[in-house]
Write a structure and sequence with these properties.
Length: 143
């Protein structure tokens, strides 16, 4: 099941995933991505996103395969969920005639991954760095 208008998600390591419509939700602190795993297993997808280097730059590609947007700063892997029977797209079809239309919405469903990334906790990083500096200074002073 592949549609021409779908946007894609490209990681810094070059791996590409098909996004569902509205599959990029960005807030101040978190980035949620909803995409099709393709032929990859849960573990393979998770490994892709858990490596900080792979998500330093996330590209959103248009239907032409060219980047439309770059998302930066969400490098902390927060978890992923697999959801079955997710509505990937909808279309309206006419089951009647031209004179007596009978419109119906048909949903296309599939299995998606819902990935959550966040910005790194800079206060925690600073605290860890501060403790390392204190430890090194104490070592230099022979404490």
């Amino acid at each position: 099941f592949k549609e021409d208008f779908m946007e894609q998600l490209k990681l810094s390591n070059g791996n590409v995933y098909d996004l569902v419509a509205g599959g990029v939700r960005e807030s101040d602190e978190t980035l949620t991505l909803v995409f099709l795993p393709g032929t990859k297993t849960f573990e393979q997808v998770e490994k892709d996103f858990a490596v900080e280097l792979n998500v330093e730059k996330v590209y959103i590609l248009g239907s032409d395969g060219e980047p439309m947007k770059t998302i930066l700063g969400y490098t902390q892997y927060k978890g992923m969920a697999k959801q079955l029977d997710y509505v990937i797209s909808s279309e309206t079809v006419n089951n009647g005639t031209e004179d007596e239309p009978d419109y119906e919405t048909v949903n296309h469903t599939g299995t998606v991954m819902i990935m959550t990334l966040s910005k790194p906790d800079l206060q925690q990083k600073y605290k860890d760095l501060e403790e390392t500096v204190e430890f090194l200074v104490a070592g230099q002073l022979g404490a």
